[in-house]
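Team,

Forwarding the record for the chain on the shared tracking sheet. I've put the sequence and predicted structure together so nobody has to dig through attachments.
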Amino acid sequence: MDTLSLIPLGGPGNVTRNMYIYEYNNQILIVDCGLGFPDETMFGVDLLVPDITYILNAIQSGKKIVGMCISHGHEDHLGALPFILPQLPNFPIFATPLTASFCNEKLKEFGLDHRVQSIPFTSNQKILGDFSVSFIHVTHSVPDTSHMFIKTPIGNFYHGSDFKFDDMPWDKKVSDYQKITQAGNEGVLCLLSDCLGTEKKGNSGSETPLYDSLYKAIQESKGKCLVTTYSSHIARLNQIIQASETLGKKVCFIGRSLIKAKEIAIKMGYIKLDGNTEIQIDELERCSDSSIVLLVAGSQGQENSSMARIVNGEHKEIKLTSQDTIIFSSDTIPGNEVLVNSMIDEISKKGIRVLYPKIHVGLHVSGHGSWDELVKLIQLTKPKTLLPIGGNFRHMALYKQLAKENGYTEGTIFLVEDGQEVVFNQNGGRLGRKIPVRNVFVDEITGEELESFVLRDRQKLSESGIVIIMVEIDSSNGQLVGKPDIITRGFAVNIERLTAGVERELCKSLKKKNGLVSNWTYMRKFVGEVCERFILRKLRKRPLVLPVVIEV
């Protein structure tokens, strides 16, 4: 019987790094190409990208990528494009107009010639090999967000990444219920559904009612009003701009990502900004503090963001005063809680008024559908099987509960993690191979991969410090000459005792290996391993040990 493989290379269980491949008849369709973000244990890591080893191996075995589709304009769905595309052969990439603009701006920034083709929602389905893809408009926290209805020879798939059902969106463009219902009527073999909002019962809330709360918060600021939100949250930016204009305040955009998003949105007609309202950063000193609203990038507490530099007193042009107000009009993305809370603590310590969604209702609503909206998508699409995506494992487990409450049985709900293949035929699906998927760390500036051993070394440094051991070895007999020299950093120990212990251990071990030294690379490794074992046995520590072996 004909089968299709669905393989997530990122997305289930970790929210970010979204990438899914649909594989049929030696053809591969890729949906999304997103970034992941490091946690506090990933020292010096800028970004994570999907592991595409499976795709590279598939290409070598004769399979072909027929196309890629991007669901919407968030970094966790498109941000890995500059790092992934140079590794792959050329193929067509499609997205809705604003999403395509975000993608192309990012590719241009990295000096790449790849172009993402713009597909309006009114266009017909795209035929990509044996796949036929239709883009369906849904509401989310960035305009032009799409779901995809993917027709294949073995059945239809509804790829429902990030969404909510907001019937009062700021731009008045509600989700296309007619197309969603039509997809359900044509038959859906599997619904892949956003599940991040499963912890909240009812509905996620509408965007438009936030305006009054934002207006009031901006109005009450005695000094400068700084507002931070997601750079791509165009509806929120529009609300803040309109409130500022109504109050007669000037608006200044601070931060590279925010300025780029604003420029693209203006060009595409998604933001309308009165020329008398916006001012540039070098014009701020000519305005009174109470007449200024600053839209600032860095709502997730990112260390080098504009907001972080302002809060830490490191921004050249903007200095905070006790009369200022700072508004967080955003949720904290899972994994960023420590960064955001630390920033709010620092603001509070300075005695500055800070408003954020946990304690001030009406500053933010989620872009992800809650329980009732997720149920509604199931009811509209009427799928045979379900696969929750875009959430952590607790969200996926709750989605399974939601599905069971709506008549689905154990064998029709797939909870998967990265690399877990699901094999579909016309009747349903089953779990297939577990494809190895590793964390791929990249440097944001160079785009180069950071090897995992580098990260392990950094983790060792942070936990147990470093020990540099310099020894002289007699090349004629392979024995220690003199005493070792030891330098430590971040490692509390009595140096004299450590030196004496290492000397005894090395002498004993080298005597067992008595003879000429023919391989000095091996000798360095041997010295390092002897010292590591000794330190672990005596001190119960695992510092990073760097042996320096001098031939005499």
